[in-house]
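Honest question from a wet-lab person: if I give you the sequences of every part of a complex, can you actually get the arrangement of the whole thing, not just the pieces? Trying it with mine:
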Amino acid sequence: MSNEIPTLHDVAFSANVSTATVSRCLNFPDKVSEKTRRRVFAAVNKLGYLPNFGAKVMATKRTNTIGAIIPTMENSIFARGLQAFQEELLVHGFTLLVASSSYRPDIEEEQIKALVARGADALLLIGYERNLEVYRFLQNQGVPALTAWAFNSSSERPSIGFDNREAMYQMAIKVIDMGHKRLALISAQTGSNDRAKARYQGILDAMSERALDAADLCFIETSYGIEEGALAFDKILSLPNRPTAVFCGNDVLAVGALRSARKSGINVPEEISIIGFDDIELAQVAYPALTTVQVPHREMGRLAAQALADLIKNGAELKSIRLETKLIFRETVAPAVDY
Amino acid sequence: MSNEIPTLHDVAFSANVSTATVSRCLNFPDKVSEKTRRRVFAAVNKLGYLPNFGAKVMATKRTNTIGAIIPTMENSIFARGLQAFQEELLVHGFTLLVASSSYRPDIEEEQIKALVARGADALLLIGYERNLEVYRFLQNQGVPALTAWAFNSSSERPSIGFDNREAMYQMAIKVIDMGHKRLALISAQTGSNDRAKARYQGILDAMSERALDAADLCFIETSYGIEEGALAFDKILSLPNRPTAVFCGNDVLAVGALRSARKSGINVPEEISIIGFDDIELAQVAYPALTTVQVPHREMGRLAAQALADLIKNGAELKSIRLETKLIFRETVAPAVDY
DNA sequence: TTGTATGCGTTATCAA
DNA sequence: TTGATAACGCATACAA
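Yes, you can. This is the full assembly:
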């Protein structure tokens, strides 16, 4: 029982052929005669040969690895999409390299460099908004990047996602048309998050469209978490002219709001309506079940992987794809009571 | 504006030193004179030099990459742990390679090979149970592996996790001592899941300990999902001698059970108690809030990353670590009603 | 169809 | 402190 890891050379020696033949046999089996192929594979099995990764990378200039940088895997919308992304990548023979930014642009930048340094053949990024210099760096290094979770027709960067503004706009129109005039939004931090910003804009646009003064929107920014949503909702409850409908930037915040309402003895939706965004599991399990916007996270991940694989393997150009969202009315929204 | 990616050579030429000096300068800055160091770094910046990954791997025989294979990122217990794992890995200069097995041993095996082939310096695996041949393969390839999410004192494989049997045992004892005699367990598939198996065993042990006939446990196996939990609960409800306490292998199944109970008009916990496992977000958001076992997922991920980093960088031996779980009593458990 | 020979971009050994 | 040079293990152009 030898303790050395076998190389191409060893296989070639054992099969009594040249290293070139072994290499060919492994990469293009049909370019080799039946007889030698059998000999080679026998040797490969006998020795337990596995191609050396570094050498392969060096020779082919390709790692067959694709990097993804997401805010955090703890947010199930990213976990879900990433899972689908990875599964599809596997089908095409790629492996997933993962990093997270904790929603911080500086960390994201660092991670982008790290993944490029690690030889990622391409990158998946969340949202458009980032330093121009980053895009230049990617270009210089020859590493293509695809944007996901957002679609903005006015940007020419390739992206696979949905129109955050439009989705929230549609939901807001519906809710306003149910008689709600005093609205609130509990939003994720909009600073460096173009998705949050777009959702905010969607509500503003809907208000203008329906002749409400957009300046009257009660806007609260907070960070991600159930607790944070609850705290923000508490603040809203203490307002003099309490809103009748509270939009939330995501389902997690909405569930926090729901919890806070229950604690304060406020009936949802009779006294106040609450709206989420994403339609993660929490939304249907919440009590009452949450009205929200359904986003095709898995589909996004899958399509992103396909596009990237197609780009690397066939040189196909990255094309933007716009996916549709869907309004899901469950139990947390009711017509506004007038008084 | 040149379009070529610069190499060590280019930097050396530009700084007017040898490639050896540049390499040294980058890897051991203090082994080089102040003057040349400045010259070299100036050249590096000017050219935008980034070390070639493949070449580096080939020369050092190290990718600084660690692979993790988990059942699925969609299960938030893994997403959470993986996030912590990745964050800690980053601190030590490692990148995370991710693959998922969908709870299938054959896919896991394939993925293990894929990650080794991708040059992972070490692997993180979930649970002990797998083909012996896999461990032999890992050994032959010289790739160390650490097991997480389970701790079994009778195994000598290094692992960082908790005692699934013990945790469920403690919970069951508590519940039995509240007067429950007719118990049920809605379990994840135990076939190739040692954690599920251990939790099952924990209940059996508790029953024996409290002089209940373990054969009376109503045991249902199902796959992961809210819907699946609900269906299993429906079955239990239709039983002639209905159990008074229903344990669930995880919180997701428990939340499904809760939903089914609500639909059937059964009061929880007055008429039936429901117990989860994991304490994910769902548990506190569920209504009524779920009684469950809290597991330190993040801590596991963090410690696993530390151990692996220490192993690769300093050759430290992998040591098993046993973490504690905690019983969380919320609102879904009440003393048994006798009749 | 198969073999020979070279290059890929680092690191590391040894000498200077 | 620095430089010349030999690996590292594979893919591939070219020759046979």
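Two things worth pointing out. Chain B has 13 helices and twelve strands. Residues 17-21, 24, 31-33, 36, 55, 57-61 of chain B lie near DNA strand D (CB under 10 Å from a C1').
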